[in-house]
Structures are given as structure tokens and as C-alpha cells.
Design goal:
It contains 16 helices and five strands. The chain has helices spanning 25-38, 50-53, 58-61, 64-81, 98-107, 112-116, 119-125, 134-137, 139-148, 162-178, 180-185, 234-243, 262-275, 279-286, 291-318, 320-349; strands at residues 12-17, 43-48, 89-92, 154-156, 197-199. The radius of gyration is 21 Å and the shape is globular. The relative contact order is 0.15. The chain binds adenosine-5'-tetraphosphate.
């Protein structure tokens, strides 16, 4: 399901995943599964965004050894899910210095007020925002640089990233306006950067915690029972789904019946996304069923879909030579696109090079 993505309008897709450990079903359904679907219609650049990972305290990303292992794990997840690193580009962000370079220019374009409104910063900084890193505050500026360095116009992401993509458009727009004359003088036409659209579609754009239907499934949730990790085995998946919070009513027969039942909505959405079916279609089959029966059907489906991927991830993580080779080759190809774009930015801004 590619939601009628037209390669004519979206010649290049970019997206990324942070190597912060505990890759979960939300990361897969909201992002990685969509990355795979885009491959047949667009040129894709998929990035392990390690510069983003270090915006959090070292205790969150685990230190140097853990970071290196997490970078390989995300790469392994990309490959195990079916991303083809020969047809498309897979690399880690810190290998292409133009990401940080363009982010600095964007730090000087973006306004403090824009960043102040970002809900992800508020959530991740928490109450003690004075102790949050400057990098966490500027995170959306680096994300805009990631995307615009490749002049990507489409970004498959989960619902939580929508606000950052709106900001990416604001930054592109302001750059185009602030330097309009120079952009024309240097032969780039009316706009240097394109407008980017988020691709947020399907029944699982915001997968919720298995323990609390009001909270997003998240890598950093202290309870492992809140999420299904991509490398969980059958017994662990079965146990987590058995313990998943539900309500006492049977499943409704139509999507309208899920209103006000966030846990039921979450499990049905997960089922639909894994099966490639609509929510209505799933409810037509399971309407009236008790959660116990539905949870065991969901366990079979999840194990069927995630089991082979988890096994392949584990195999690839052990094959560091292969994974490191994919990242190195991908970085060379990414840099070949990024460098001339950054040169153009320097010319437009007036830096001598
Ligand atoms: N629960 C989710 N449902 C759907 N999509 C999700 N994504 C993340 N959580 C869900 C999508 O996964 C992609 C990569 O996310 P990220 O690595 O940038 O990290 P994140 O959004 O910060 O993910 P987490 O798991 O929630 O980490 P923490 O706990 O650190 O906050 C993105 O496209 C994201 O939308």
C-alpha cells in the first residue's frame, strides 16, 4: 500500500531512525515498513540518525560501545525488513558531515519561538528543561537539514513527527525567501529548497503502549511490557500481548465502536497494519469476539510477520563486516548528493569556497 505515491511528484524520499536501542513495533509499522513500500516507486535515502541519538543524555543512548552496536542494529532492521541497499541508499548520518554543516545554517534561519513550540522537545526535556542539551532543542533543525540536503519531497514517518515536518517546510520557505535574490543570481530559479510532505498513512501511524492506550509505544519506556521489540521471540510476544491492557467489552463490529476504547483501537490497528488490511475489514471478522481469542490471533500474526525479520536482524548484527560495508558504501553515495547541495547553499549564503 503506497497511498498513490507518485514518483513524478516525489522523486526522492528521505527518512531516518535513531540508534537509541529497543527498536519496536511502532518504529516498524509507523516508519520502517513504509520505507520498504516506497522502494518500488521512488529513489530512497534511509539514514541511521546517530547525530540525533546523542541529543539525549549519554545514559539514554548508552555510551560509545552501545551507540556503535545500536547503529548496526538499526541497519540490520532496515535490511531484514527488506530495504535494498544496492538500489537505494542506507548510511549513518555522522559519516556525511554536510548534515551538521547545513544544520548550522538552519540554526541561523530557524527562530527560537518555532523551536519553543515543539512538543517532542517539551516531552523529552521534561520538567527540567534547563538541563536539556542545546542539541535536543535544535533537533528539528538537524532533521530539516537531513531531508533538505537530499532535496527530498516525501518523508515517511509516524504521526509524532508531523510537527517537525511542518517546521522543515517553514525553514525551507524562510531560506528561499531570505536568499531569494542570491538564489536567482546563482541560477537556482525561484526556490533552492523544495517543500516537503510527510507520508503518514495507514492504521498504525501512532502505535500506543501495550500498558497504557494514552501513551505512545516508545523505546525509552522503562517497562519492556509496554512494547513489542523487533527481536522478541514467540513466547515474549505472546506474554506481552496476553498482558496487554484491554477493556471488558467484546470487540465491536465497526470502527465507530472503537471510539473511546484506546486499547482496543490500538490492538485492532496493529492487527490491521501487520495483515495489510483495513480496520473495518478486521472488525468484520472479529466483531463480537473476546479479547482472549483476538489476542491469540494477533500473537500468531505478529510472530508470523516479525519472527523471520527478528531472526534475520540477529544474523546481520553478528555479521559486522557486511553491515559496516553497507553503511560505508551508502555514505559515499549519500555524500555525492549532499556535497553539491551544500556547495550551492554556501554560494547562495555568500561563503567563499
Ligand atoms: N509508537 C509509534 N508509532 C508509530 N510510529 C512511531 N515511530 C516511533 N514511535 C512510533 C516512528 O519511528 C520512526 C523512528 O523514530 P525515532 O527513532 O526517531 O525515535 P522516536 O520517535 O523518538 O521513537 P521512540 O520509540 O518514541 O523513542 P523515544 O522513546 O526515545 O521517544 C519515526 O518515523 C517515528 O515517527
Amino acid at each position: 500500500m503506497t497511498d498513490a505515491i507518485d514518483a513524478k511528484f516525489h522523486p526522492r524520499v528521505f527518512s531516518g531512525v535513531q540508534p537509541t536501542g529497543n527498536l519496536h513495533l511502532g518504529n516498524y509499522l509507523g516508519a520502517i515498513k513504509r520505507f520498504v513500500e516506497m522502494q518500488d516507486v521512488c529513489d530512497c535515502v534511509y539514514c541511521v540518525v546517530d547525530l540525533h541519538a546523542i541529543t539525549q543524555p549519554v545514559s539514554v543512548w548508552g555510551g560509545p560501545k552501545q551507540l556503535a552496536s545500536n547503529i548496526r542494529e538499526v541497519t540490520a532492521a532496515f535490511l531484514a525488513a527488506g530495504i535494498d541497499p544496492v538500489r537505494h541508499i542506507v548510511f549513518n548520518q555522522s559519516r556525511v558531515p554536510e548534515h551538521a554543516e547545513l544544520a548550522w545554517v538552519f540554526n541561523c534561519i530557524a527562530r527560537l519561538g518555532w523551536m519553543e513550540r515543539m512538543t517532542q522537545f517539551k516531552e523529552k526535556a521534561g520538567k527540567d528543561r534547563e538541563r536539556a542539551s542545546l542539541g535536543l532543542f535544535a533537533y528539528p533543525s538537524l532533521m530539516a537539514a537531513d531531508i533538505l540536503l537530499y532535496k527530498a519531497t516525501a518523508v515517511p514517518v509516524g504521526e509524532d513527527q508531523k510537527q517537525h515536518l511542518e517546521l522543515t517546510r517553514d525553514i525551507a520557505q524562510k531560506f528561499n525567501n531570505d536568499f531569494a535574490e542570491s538564489i536567482r543570481d546563482h541560477g537556482f530559479g525561484d526556490a533552492f529548497f523544495p517543500m516537503t510532505a510527510p507520508l503518514i498513512h495507514g492504521p498504525a501511524t501512532r502505535v500506543m503502549s501495550l500498558r497504557d492506550g494514552a501513551k505512545k509505544m516508545s523505546k525509552s519506556d522503562p517497562s519492556d511490557l509496554s512494547r513489542i521489540n523487533l527481536t522478541d521471540d514467540r513466547d515474549t510476544i505472546a506474554q506481552k500481548l496476553r498482558k496487554a491492557k484491554t477493556d471488558p467489552e467484546p470487540l465491536p463490529s465497526e470502527p465507530a465502536g472503537l471510539e473511546g476504547r484506546p486499547e482496543a483501537q490500538n490492538l485492532v490497528g496493529i492487527y490491521a497494519a501487520l495483515a495489510g488490511r483495513t480496520t473495518a475489514d478486521v472488525l468484520a471478522e472479529y466483531g463480537g469476539a473476546q479479547f482472549s481469542g483476538f489476542k491469540s490471533a494477533l500473537t500468531d500474526l505478529a510472530v508470523d510477520k516479525l519472527g523471520p525479520m527478528g531472526a534475520e536482524m540477529k544474523r546481520l548484527v553478528a555479521d559486522t563486516t557486511h553491515v559496516d560495508g553497507v553503511l560505508a558504501a551508502g555514505a559515499e553515495r549519500a555524500a555525492a548528493i549532499a556535497r553539491p547541495v551544500m556547495d550551492g547553499v554556501k554560494d547562495v549564503v555568500g561563503f567563499l569556497r
